[in-house]
Amino acid sequence: MTSPTPDALLGPADIRELASALGVRPTKQRGQNFVIDANTVRRIVRTAGVRPDDVVVEVGPGLGSLTLALLEAADRVTAVEIDDVLAAALPATIAARMPERADRFALVHSDAMHVAELPGPQPTALVANLPYNVAVPVLLHMLDTFPGIERTLVMVQSEVADRLAAAPGSKVYGVPSVKANWYAEVKRAGAIGRNVFWPAPNVDSGLVSLVRRTEPINTTASKAEVFAVVDAAFAQRRKTLRAALAGWAGSAAAAEAALVAAGVSPQARGESLTVEEFARIAEAAPSRGAAPATPDEEAGE
């Protein structure tokens, strides 16, 4: 009888052994917390709905825990890693533990915020354990840069997960909520305990699912124009939109005119608006040409 093949995925002892051999000590600066539980990474892959024909991009693969689980399920995996030591070691880990899939793996040694292209077929899915300190900007950059990404599942700090998935009217609804919703339908997809990480973080983690919109937001305004309104609206959360958008519009009166033209109450606050309403305000921006029509002018048309 042949002995059973050892599990290709990394367990706690494997992670510590790899880290020790590489002289790696997880740093808070890069938000490094390595997943040490094989069941957790398989759960992430399952929750992400990774299919055999998927080309998955992973950001921050670290020592390769999630990477190996993704390679089990996807057609190809491209990992983006900023850390010099981790980037150098990962291909060897893949080759040693999953040699039959090594040719389906590619590594990009770069800061994910600066990645403009990826080797091979374009990604159809993004699955990642994102460093807490850069999770939102990295997520938005990847969704913007790679429009072929249809499905995303990211593990982030629980509070960040709440913000990303928040609906209008929620206390934690804000800039990340609106901007993520520009690209996708967003929802919470589960919680992750602290004990599956090494070192164990001081915060809880959550999974967020993002399914890209089949039809983009229906607006004549550009993403940059809409995001400028969003940023201005939440820069001073306690203020009404008439006041918060005064700088953006040029004056409080101009902000009020744009809001009325967009069908939004000047007394409303940013946390009550949908992404579609922010887009309507952007369309009514004074800088886009003619002054917005007042309700009386619209009625007389």
TrEMBL record:
GO terms for cellular component: cytosol. SUPFAM superfamilies: S-adenosyl-L-methionine-dependent methyltransferases. S-adenosyl-L-methionine binds at residues 33, 35, 60, 81, 111, 129. It comes from the Bacteria. The keyword Iron does not apply. Residues 40-214 form the Ribosomal RNA adenine methylase transferase N-terminal domain. Its EC number is 2.1.1.182. It is found in: Cytoplasm. GO terms for molecular function: 16S rRNA (adenine(1518)-N(6)/adenine(1519)-N(6))-dimethyltransferase activity; RNA binding. CDD domains: AdoMet_MTases. Gene3D superfamilies: Ribosomal RNA adenine dimethylase-like, domain 2 (1.10.8.100), Vaccinia Virus protein VP39 (3.40.50.150). Keywords: Cytoplasm, Methyltransferase, RNA-binding, rRNA processing, S-adenosyl-L-methionine, Transferase. It catalyses: adenosine(1518)/adenosine(1519) in 16S rRNA + 4 S-adenosyl-L-methionine = N(6)-dimethyladenosine(1518)/N(6)-dimethyladenosine(1519) in 16S rRNA + 4 S-adenosyl-L-homocysteine + 4 H(+). Specifically dimethylates two adjacent adenosines (A1518 and A1519) in the loop of a conserved hairpin near the 3'-end of 16S rRNA in the 30S particle. May play a critical role in biogenesis of 30S subunits. Belongs to the class I-like SAM-binding methyltransferase superfamily. rRNA adenine N(6)-methyltransferase family. RsmA subfamily. This is Ribosomal RNA small subunit methyltransferase A. It comes from Streptomyces lucensis JCM 4490. The gene is rsmA.
